[in-house]
Amino acid sequence: MERSFVAKNPSVLVFLAILSLFTLGVTVLSEGFGIGVISTSFVKTLGKTLCLCLIAVAMDLVWGFTGILSLGHFAFFGLGGYMIGMWLMYERTRLIVAESLSQADIPPTPAEVVDAIGTQIFGVVGSSEFPLIWAFSHSLTLQLILVVVVPGLLALIFGWLAFRSRVTGVYLSILTQAMTLALALYLFQNDSGLRGNNGLSGLQNLPGVTVSQDVVSLWFLWASAFALGLGYMLAAWIVSGKFGSVLRGIRDNEARVRFLGYSVEAYKLAVFTLTACIAAIAGALYYPQAGIINPEEMAPIASIYLAVWVAIGGRGRLYGAVIGAAFVSLLSTWFTGGQAPDIPLGFYTIKWVDWWQVLLGVSFVLVTLFAPQGIGGLFDLYTNQRHPDRHGANLGPDEGALREKEASL
């Protein structure tokens, strides 16, 4: 009798329980709930960290389980943020314009309202007309659909072109990085339609919402935790079945999987597109908490950081990706936020704000050399995980098949 998904993956229940307790604890201790032990700014930091954990799960799925080192997934993350940011800016500006024009003696026409909104949004880049890509910015429903469709379509087209050409290894990584760089450089231009290097700002102000940021930060924390829980379960379900076995086979020996008759390119394209959509959802939840998004967020270095998080946490382990992203993100906030004390050496003072990236790079090198299984590998040591002891039982269906002892030689 085939075991259920939960029976085969008890760690999923453990993860969901920890995530639920964490979310409940932060909620109770937050300023929005009333106790005030945890500040609103730190609640936002924790909410953003959960979003980074979600994109780390996506990265682990495409790299740790499939062997595709993508250095472009932060581009999809940023695109998701831009899609929701367009609606937030449009609707917030519309309410402001409508309130100001309502005081006029003559009611404004719809065209005048739209023109005033365009002037408010695009005046910073010397324009007042809405670009074509803002055609659906007035509709929250359509923009939420575009959060998934736009990054997913970009990943589908790019992946189809790359995988059908059988580009692999470092060459594929370079291509994904080039895609990210090209997209970032395009968005830096004022005529890109997304306000150039000014980006989209004021995203933390939800249109029509009159409650304080203390409460809004909790809303986003809950949404981020819910998305992370669903994303983790989806990734665990994928890797625990036949699809996941094929992905691991592609990672370990792509030629052999192709020889067995599997369409390697189709599997790669499917996981690449799916993880792009997951990354976009994470970005759509992240940037309203950050309050601003600009092309710098999509720089190639961000995707490199993402790979570092997964490597430090332990790739090929979904919980490792979460641990790595949370650990590095919170530690980075502590170092770069000026909370880490400077270290005076007499002849020189170590300021962690300046040395944090060096420390992160050194940590990545040390983990790669001495702990390739990352922080997640420590859990394996703690739980003393080993291969199942079959006491020499047959590994095949016939008598005389390969036995456990022979297989280990």
Description:
By secondary structure, the chain is mainly α. Helices cover 67% and strands 2% of the residues. It has 16 helices and 4 strands. The protein has a two-stranded antiparallel sheet with strand order 1-2. Strands 3-4 form a two-stranded antiparallel ribbon. α13 (318-336) packs antiparallel against α14 (352-370). The longest helix is centred in the first third of the chain and has 29 residues, at 73-101. It is globular and about 75 Å long. It starts with a helix and ends with a helix.
Keywords:
single chain; 409 residues; mainly alpha; two-stranded antiparallel ribbon; two-stranded antiparallel sheet; 16 helices; 4 strands; globular; disordered C terminus
List the SSEs and their pairings.
Blueprint: H1 5-8, H2 10-29, H3 40-64, H4 73-101, H5 110-122, H6 140-164, H7 169-188, E1 200-201, H8 213-240, H9 242-252, H10 254-259, H11 264-290, E2 292-293, H12 300-313, H13 318-336, E3 343-344, E4 349-350, H14 352-370, H15 376-383, H16 404-407
Antiparallel strand pairs: 1-2, 3-4
